[in-house]
Amino acid sequence: MSAASARRPVFDEKEDVNFDHFQILRAIGKGSFGKVCIVQKRDTEKMYAMKYMNKQQCIERDEVRNVFRELEILQEIEHIFLVNLWYSFQDEEDMFMVVDLLLGGDLRYHLQQNVQFSEDTVRLYICEMALALDYLRSQHIIHRDVKPDNILLDEQGHAHLTDFNIATIIKDGERATALAGTKPYMAPEIFQSFVSGGTGYSFEVDWWSVGVMAYELLRGWRPYDIHSSNAVESLVQLFGTVSVQYAPAWSKDVVALLRKLLTVNPEHRVSSLQDMQAAPSLARVPWDDLSQKKVEPGFVPNKGRLHCDPTFELEEMILESRPLHKKKKRLAKNKSRDNSRDSSQSENDYLQDCLDAIQQDFVIFNREKLKRSQDPTAEPLPVPEPQNEAEPLADSEASGSSLPMCGPLCPSAGSS
């Protein structure tokens, strides 16, 4: 056994995974109500991305239901072209999701860096997303937010779909009806259903979004001039009157594929893997190799840098009122304060009731443990040895990481 392996902590397999099992390395992103950092699991030394969401903020923004739905979905799925969940846990302040770490950045970032994507590269992304969406359909899931911001590249340049915050599950014969998504990428039938109260929509909406994304990657702007401020009624009219303009320089195959994806009528839209494999423009795609990541991407992110905004790390260290690297001391102080205070003097009984409900209903998940239980040939973990009381190195002082620092500042991601 190497000296490095001997220094690894060993956790009791009966113990639930928790915050102390991870070394926090650096902040890399944030969403509407959550933040993301790179972590290393202390016992296996594997690297992951960890998304953490403050419970009180989720309650105030009425987002708890979305978080629970996302966890429910992610705990049941796994695919080579998704960003997969490995662990979920909670403490008094936050809910945590630990997922695959993809260091290639999202497609929005690369668009903002003025990357010129080739037709072959975009065709590969379309095919990889087709495999992901085909799998999601087999699990009865509509993603509802496919866009460049939610497609992450690994270090080799393969695309992975992430963020199931507004995804929904529909069983056979059911239709979704909610107005959900990011307007520039939402399919016409979503708006039509909202305005006219029609029959709703189904899996076809995600394929429209893939078409919008692919067009944007090739041209630098989207096929329709839609913004978040546009009224829904005006968008229904727009899809009925405005035609998509395709660049004259694009090949006939690419234009044909985009036309099939950007068909307003969902009944005529390409919306399944079978449809894609039958498309003449994709006749030469080696689907078996592609499904195993054996097709080499045309665009490979620069491995010498992190493709993120470095201000995320500065905000976490300087501006964040509850920085992650000081969590352990903060929780200990809060616990001491709570024990010394009469519980009947709670300032906000409703908030406390909500926090108690989250604590009770949150589902802890450990895919690593699940995989071991399903594989009888897997080696058992070593039995933990008694440990001394010495405090481990503070997360903020970790310097052993070989991760590069973030590259030049990039504008904040987001679609209007």
Automatic annotation (TrEMBL):
It is an enzyme of class 2 (transferase). Keywords: ATP-binding, Kinase, Magnesium, Metal-binding, Nucleotide-binding, Phosphoprotein, Serine/threonine-protein kinase, Transferase. Residues 325-334 have a biased composition (Basic residues). ATP binds at residue 51. Its cofactor is Mg(2+). Residues 22-282 form the Protein kinase domain. The keyword Transferase applies. Residues 325-348, 368-416 are annotated as: Disordered. One of its GO terms (biological process) is G protein-coupled receptor signaling pathway. PANTHER family: G PROTEIN-COUPLED RECEPTOR KINASE/RIBOSOMAL PROTEIN S6 KINASE, SERINE_THREONINE KINASE 32C. This is Serine/threonine-protein kinase 32C. It comes from Trichechus manatus latirostris (Florida manatee). The gene is STK32C.
